[in-house]
Design brief:
Largest sheet: 6 strands, mixed
Strand order of the largest sheet: 1-2-3-4-6-9
Shape: globular
Number of helices: 11
Structural class: alpha/beta
CATH superfamily of the largest domain: 2-enoyl-CoA Hydratase, Chain A, domain 1
CATH topology of the largest domain: 2-enoyl-CoA Hydratase, Chain A, domain 1
Order of helices and strands: EEHEHHEEHEEHHEHEHHHH
Radius of gyration: 19 Å
Mean pLDDT: 94
CATH architecture of the largest domain: Alpha-Beta Complex
Helix content: 40-55%
Strand content: 15-25%
Low-confidence stretches: none
Number of strands: 9
């Protein structure tokens, strides 16, 4: 771990190019109050500023990956509306920052992924789910609406009809259903999820991580720009990539075959 406080709500360790972010409020289902959201933003910034980070791995401590927002903190706040607005804006900004990085993101999820917890799944590029994991929007169960980028990214990942179904019907998806919908990449046995996610992160870290990172940036940014602007970005990015040491070594190896 990079910091001395193992009780922090979000932990960060960096080893061999892998930045491991652990959501660390297990007694609260890793739900987010404002200090936890602020800690997450700080951790993402540290990853962004560290040139040694080639891949980010996100997991959750305890029995559940993430229960979304900490409802008890909503109720305890003197001004409910102002508090929830700040919490949603803060966590949403951190997740947007994570999604926008030119660094591949892997997530290993288990137990429950609810509400804003889906924001982590949607911000990740490769997601491994434990077989017993359940996925739910949860917001409407307490009369609230989606936040943390979920309403923006979910229809782009699973399609509008399925996004509306998950939002309005209050249904709970199994891990196998989440796989069928394209919400996760694979389902493994519960005891294997952390090791499998770590293996995926390691394989990316050992590969052309800079190219992976720029590729994920291009794919994610395609939601928000015109075809012409995106084409210019593609050409500029590959033109820059071909001059990199990483590409030079791999091209030489390819031609040497």
């Amino acid at each position: 771990m990079s910091g001395p406080d193992a009780t922090a709500p979000v932990l960060l360790s960096i080893d061999r190019g892998i930045a491991h972010i652990t959501l660390n409020r297990p007694d609260s289902a890793n739900a987010f109050d404002l200090p936890a959201a602020q800690a997450f933003c700080s951790v993402v910034d540290r990853c962004a500023d560290d040139d040694a980070v080639r891949v980010i791995l996100v997991t959750g401590a305890g029995r559940r990956f993430c229960g979304g927002g900490d409802v008890r903190s909503f109720v305890a706040a003197p001004d409910h509306g102002a508090y929830v607005h700040e919490l949603a804006a803060t966590l949403g900004a951190g997740l947007r920052r994570l999604a926008d990085l030119s660094i591949p993101v892997v997530a290993g999820v288990h137990g429950a992924v609810a509400g804003a917890g889906l924001g982590f799944v949607l911000a990740a590029d490769l997601v491994t789910a434990a077989r017993s994991t359940r996925f739910t929007m949860a917001f409407s169960n307490i009369g609230l609406t989606p936040d943390s980028g979920v309403s923006y990214l979910l229809p782009r990942v699973v399609g509008l009809r399925r996004a509306l179904d998950l939002t309005l019907s209050q249904r709970v998806l199994t891990a196998d259903e989440a796989l069928e919908w394209g919400l996760v990449n694979e389902v493994v046995e519960d005891n294997d999820v952390r090791a499998r996610a770590a293996d995926m992160a390691r394989l990316l870290a050992e590969g052309p991580a800079a190219a992976f990172g720029q590729a994920r940036r291009l794919l994610r940014s395609s939601y928000e720009v015109s075809r012409d602007i995106h084409a210019e970005d593609e050409a500029r990015t590959i033109g820059s990539a071909v001059t990199s040491g990483e590409a030079g070594e791999l091209i030489a190896k390819f031609l040497g075959r």
